[in-house]
Every structure is written in C-alpha cells, then in structure tokens.
Amino acid sequence: MSPGIGGKELQWSGLPRPSQLRHLVSPYNLDLLTTPAAIVFPQNVTQVAAAVKCAVDAGIKVQAKSGGHNYGNFGSSTGEISVNLENLQDFSMDHTTWTAKFGPGNSLGQVTELMYNNGGRQAPHGETFDVGQGVEVVLANSSIVRASKSENEDLIFAVRGAGSSVGIVTDFTIRTVPVPPSTVDYTYVWTKQSVASQVKIFQSWQKLLAGGTLPREMSYGLTVTANGMVLSGVYFGSEDEFAALNLTSHFATPPQVSETKAYSSFLEVSKALDAAVSAAGIASPSHFYAKSLVFTEKTLIPEATAHSFFSYLANTKNGTDLYALNFNGLGGAVGDFSPSEAAYPHRDTLYFMFSFARTSGNLTDTTIRFLDGLSEVLTSGNPKTYYGQYSGNVDPRETNEKAQTGYYGQNLDRLQRIKEAVDLNDVSTTSRVGGQQGIGEDGVGWGIQDGE
Q1: Neighbour count for residue 394 (Cβ, 10 Å)
Q2: How many domains does the structure of the chain reveal?
Q3: Same domain, yes or no, for 171 and 190?
Q4: 33 vs 87: CA distance, rounded Å
Q5: Which residues 6+ apart lie within 8 Å of 51 measured at CB?
Q6: Within this chain, do residues 385 and 249 fall inside the same structural domain, yes or no?
Q7: Checking CA distances to 353, which of 334, 394, 403, 436 falls within 20 to 30 Å?
Q8: Helices of type H across 149-218
C-alpha cells in the first residue's frame, strides 16, 4: 500500500512489532485475540476505496472497523485488512429537512451531542439508528455508490441490518426530530430474592410489556444479575406523566430501591446513561462471552420456564466474576415496518434478551456452558418455535448456519442474492450472509454499520 492514495497520505500499519499489536488492534473481546494482515486508517472515502482495491489486488479480504465494540472482534480478523474508519468523523445537519449526515468514525455519544447542538435534535431508535434515509457505500469493486429507498434499493435493504456484508459504509443520513423538553430516568431495584419471588417479578414485567399499555415514549428493561433484579429506563415526558404510569403498582413485591431523576436537558440525560453503562463494567474490553435471543408475543416465557430459568441461575456454576442478563423491551416504531423492508427482520420483537458473562482471565468451558445452557432453558417453553437473534451481538462460537437463520430469518435468501450481486468473491467478509465461517459485523462505535 502506497502513501498518497486519494490525495492525502494513507496511514497504514503492517504490524511489524508484536508490542504494537494490542494498541493498534485494540481488541474488545480479550478472549479472541486477532492479528490482521495490516491496518489502514483512511482519511476519506477515496482512500477507503483505494484500500479495498489494494486488498483485492493482493487477494486479501477486508473488514471495516469503527468503534470496535464487536463481540467477535470482527473488523480486525486474523489475516485480513482492517480498514479503521476512526478518522471519518464528518457531521452536518440539513436545517430544512432536518436530516443529519455523518461518518462512521463518530460514536453514538458524539452524534447525540452534535445533533443536540445543531438545532436541538435527536434520532429516536431502538438498539441502533435507522439508516433508511440513505448511505454512502464502498463496494468490493472499489466503486463508491449511494443507496436509499429510491436508489440502489437492494443495497439499502441489505445495509439496514447486514451492512458490512455488502461493503463499507462511509456516511449515514438519518431522520431527526426535536428533543423532548423533559425526560425522567428511573431505576427500581429488587435485591436478592427467592426463586419464587424472582419468577413473580419477571412475569409481572413481561405481562406489563405484553399488555400493550406502556407508551412508546419510554424504554423499559429488566436486568438480572447475581445480586438482584433492576427495572430501569427513560421516560420522554414530564415527571407528572411518568408518575401517572405508577409502574411499581404492577409488581406484588415492592422494590427495595426506587430512584427517579428528571432532566430538562436531553444531552444531560444521554451523558448520564452513558456513564451508567460505563460504571456497569460491561462496556470495556474484557474476557467475556455473550448471546442474544428475540422474544415475541408468540414466544412469551411461561411461568414454569421462568421458574426453571431462575432455578438454573441459582444452582448452576457459572465461572464468572460478573454476569448480566438484560431483557430489553422493544416494540414502538420498530414494529411499524414490514419484515421485508430491511434486512433486519425481527419487527414483531417484544423484547431482546442479551446475556453477558465476564471472567477475570481466559474463558473456561464452565462459563460458555453456563450461557449456552441459559439460552436452552429460556427457549424450552416453546421448543418448536423460531427464536431470532440480534446481529449486533454476535456469538462467534455459533455455527454459521444457526447464526444466519437467527439474525436474518426470512430475509436470508434475498440477502444472499444481493451478496452475490455486489460481492461474489466475499471481499467484505464481515457478515454471516456470505457463507464464510467466522464472519460477522463490526459494531461501528454503536452498532450502526449493521443498522436497523
């Protein structure tokens, strides 16, 4: 790779010294260390295209990396070119259409602050932003194209859920709305409870979510750890409106801790939530294993299964120094779209279950079996039913076939046809659409490289 590609010097590293490897690769999952063939740090889209062409000419596969929060360290795979997009941090706001355009080198926190400071805007989203307004993509043939619902429709379909399998996205355009004038951050904690009490709390949480009475203007999640259960979220409205919901009245066992805090600044609450994630200890590089499951109204967890689940937690060796099971309520506008509109198929999701297990050193079979067994218990209540998975939380130990089916369901056939059309030789080997073992998607800071 030569300097000067695209009019500016193209930074790159062939990783000549092992002492530099960890710093340059910056692995997120310390249990799955990798050694890319080289890492490039393009300054613009032209240099991204040049890096792809260089890799193709050399017969080497390519993976894009931004934030690097990928559970399998995809974006820095061994023997492949890692295209680090951290320098692509442009941002603009169209004050007529109120669409925001930005590069993948931005983090979620950066984009949130930039939108707030450019007209008091925000982008409502579930696990990640919807990039349906349009994207710029570098394809395997090194061409630079735009995709939207009116241009390269197949490509925008693939990007919205499996983007990194079809190319490298170099900018995103998203719809924004005004920030709410007030928000309420709430947390309710049940410290260590009996299995029977935990079952009742969980069933009450699930019943309230499935009942359809919760407003869209709120997030609603339940976290289970070895120390207890935490109901938390944010309500986008006033304190009086939130109080009228009377959430705790739906639980027979009152929480031991109840905390609510009102914010008049949307940016302030966003930063507080970021700080809470950091303090939880699950966002920093570590040795860990993680899995996901999608639950719908057809796969609600029966009471007997919930009892088996909490009994499993109480009696099974886990080998961790921390585990967290996050049940994240979804619904809302995500379900307004047809499953065939984007690669992300799980439009009927009621909630996700994200399981995370961290160890102080290398993972052992004990911890891996603990999370695998946990998923088996949770799906045992509906054994013959399809359970989806979330591609933003990849399980690199899973078989390719199971991962493809779990991530993309009914959209897999169309995705594979698109993959063949734009990347027949699997150059962008960064998603489990392509048919290669060990491929996945980079988190791109906050999951938008494979945005919904």
Answers
A1: 28
A2: 3
A3: no
A4: 24
A5: 1, 5, 10, 12, 40, 42, 62, 81, 83
A6: yes
A7: 436
A8: 153-162, 195-210
